[in-house]
Structures are given as structure tokens and as C-alpha cells.
Amino acid sequence: MIRNLTLLFITLLSLTAFGQNEHKHVKLQEEIKGKRYEIYIENTDSISYDIFLKVDTNDFRRSSERPILQTIKGNSRVRVLTMVKLNGKEGKYTYILVVNEVSYALEIDKDFEIIDFKLDKEINNKAVILYTQDDCTICPDAKHILTKNKISYTEYNLDKDTTNYNKIIKEFKAIKPKSDFNKIPIMKIDDKLYNDIDSLESFIQALRDGFN
After folding, report:
1. Neighbouring-strand partners of residue 108
2. Is omega for the bond preceding 67 within 30 degrees of 0, making it cis?
3. Residues 185 and 126 sit within 8 Å (Cβ to Cβ)
4. 64-110 residue pLDDT tens
5. Which residues have CB under 8 Å from 181's CB, separation 6+?
């Protein structure tokens, strides 16, 4: 109940800012079978979204008059509403669809409370590699954040691992030929490389980009 009220509050704020009937990944679809209209929400993204759906019409008898608050999982299509067209009506309706990403707060110790970051649970299985060095001041805290949030990662210390040092330089130059290879840590999330990490804030931003 509390979660629904929170979502409704967020949704109403979103509605004040914009009517999000168009979304890159989440869309409303309908299937018409005689007088019966089945309303679906399709999510083509890999992560979950909370949706707020409000349908306005005088042409249908609906299964519910209240707005719909529902979580749509990644790569899924869910029936959210059934409407039956009334006799003598055209079958017109309007709707408002608002979409919010489902996330959880990344756990940060008190020393890092100023950092605000969210990470979707359903994509917490990406391959993360962290390249460190002995004199890297950011690396211990970066590893602590990964470990505390149960994000699996592989660490290569470039002071002790020449093979992987040469490998990452070659790979990095292939992806970013014009960039400077001079900052540690370097993080790889799947096929994305991040070498511009010079603070915990930029480390968090790299995580956000890599996971979303």
C-alpha cells in the first residue's frame, strides 16, 4: 500500500511535468475481438518499469474505473485492462501512460551519503572488470561499493599483471583511439570501457551508464 502511494505520488509529479504517452520501450497495445478491447502494455527493454495508466472514455464498460499501477517486467507483454464497447458507441478512448524505471538505491556507507545512484536489480548480472593499481586512491572505495551491493566483478592490478595491462591498452585503443590512457581505475561493463574515473561520483556515473 505504501509502495503504491509512493508510486502514485511520483506519477502525479511526472504528470505535472509531461504526459508520457510515448516511451522508447514501453507502449500501449490493443487487441479488438468484436466488442471486447484487450489493452496490453509491452516492455521491450531488459529492465522493469512501473506504469501509471489512466483511460478516459464514455464508449466502454470497463473492468475497473480506477487508474492502473503495475510493474511491467523486462521483455514482457502484459494485459492490464479489458473494455467492452457499449451498443451504439464508436469505441473511442483517450489515455495517459506514465512510465518510471524500477530501481533500488545503491547502498553507500555514511561517508558516501552525498552520492545518489539507482541500479536496476534485473540487470545486475553484467560482466564487470575493474583495473586497479597499488597507488589508486579511489580503488578501495570503488571495490567496497561493488562488494556491498553484491555486484560481481573481476579485478586486475596492473602493477602486478603485465599481460592484462597490455591487453586492456590494446582493447582501449581499439574502442577509444583518440583518448588518453592515463587514469586508474578503469572499468569495463560488458563491452563498455570507462577510463575517465577521477572521483567516486564519476565512478557512480560510470556504473549508471554501464548498467542502464
Report:
1. none
2. no
3. no
4. 678 899 999 888 999 999 999 999 999 999 999 998 876 555 666 65
5. 169, 172, 173, 195
Dihedrals phi, psi of 13, to nearest 5 degrees: -65, -40
Q: Residue 107 contacts by C-beta under 8 Å, 6 or more apart in sequence?
A: 148, 149
Instruction: Give just the sign of the alpha carbon dihedral 16, 22, 25, 27.
Output: positive
From the list 9, 166, 164, 32, the residue with the least C-alpha distance to 100 is 9
Of 146, 165, 147, nearest in space to 156 by CA:
165
pLDDT in tens, 12-36: 444 333 345 678 889 999 999 999 9
Question: And the C-alpha cell for 52?
Answer: 501509471
Q: Give residue for cell 587514469.
A: 183
Q: DSSP letters of 54-93?
A: EEE-SSEEES-SSPEEEEE-TTEEEEEEEEEEPTT-----
Task: Give 7's strand partners.
Answer: none
- On whether the CB atoms of residues 59 and 89 are closer than 8 A, the answer is yes
